[in-house]
Amino acid sequence: DAKTTQPTSMDCAEGRAANLPCNHSTISGNEYVYWYRQIHSQGPQYIIHGLKNNETNEMASLIITEDRKSSTLILPHATLRDTAVYYCIVSQSYNTDKLIFGTGTRLQVFP
Amino acid sequence: GAGVSQSPSNKVTEKGKDVELRCDPISGHTALYWYRQSLGQGLEFLIYFQGNSAPDKSGLPSDRFSAERTGGSVSTLTIQRTQQEDSAVYLCASSLVPRTSGGASTDTQYFGPGTRLTVL
Q1: What is the pLDDT of residues B27-43, one digit of tens each?
Q2: Which of B31, B45, B108 is closest, CB to CB, to A100?
Q3: Per-residue pLDDT at B103 exceeds 50
Q4: Contact state of A49 with B112 under an 8 Å Cβ cutoff
């Protein structure tokens, strides 16, 4: 199973772009990269996912390197409400979709 | 539309008692997952349901833990003879369809707010 590596914590000024990196050097060809976040005392919230192409939705953009060994989640204009733990997850086995959460990156957005 | 709901939101129990935690998935979602998150820890997978069957129970920590799902909808996680180390937030998630075997398709899991279990 592929594993991910993320920085423990990051800070970002409100209104600036937050760029959260993730390394997944052992990712397999048909494994997706998922991003979730968990705001304090809430359940994880889905943000975005991708296979090999860059993706964008109303919440964020996901940039995946050509070799797929790393990715970056971009929050274009961070707000105080984006303060959360962000999890980068590589999807697992063929037979279940269970998500293996690591320790994630604690993003602190400051005024 | 309605998301995943869980009840109770908080449960305090005494060591040795049995508890039942309930999850109502998003309507029409065939896959349902239970996770737990101990204080300061990451999320830990417990069990996965496809319909009413559980093809993956690999995360259940002991035989005191069991889960069932009826009518392809509501699921109940039961913990018997609770211990203090069972204290955690228990999270439920559902998805429309699971990934097909060998395929690269997948579907997003949506989480409920969790049940905070405290064993005294």
Answers
A1: 989 899 999 999 877 88
A2: B45
A3: no
A4: no
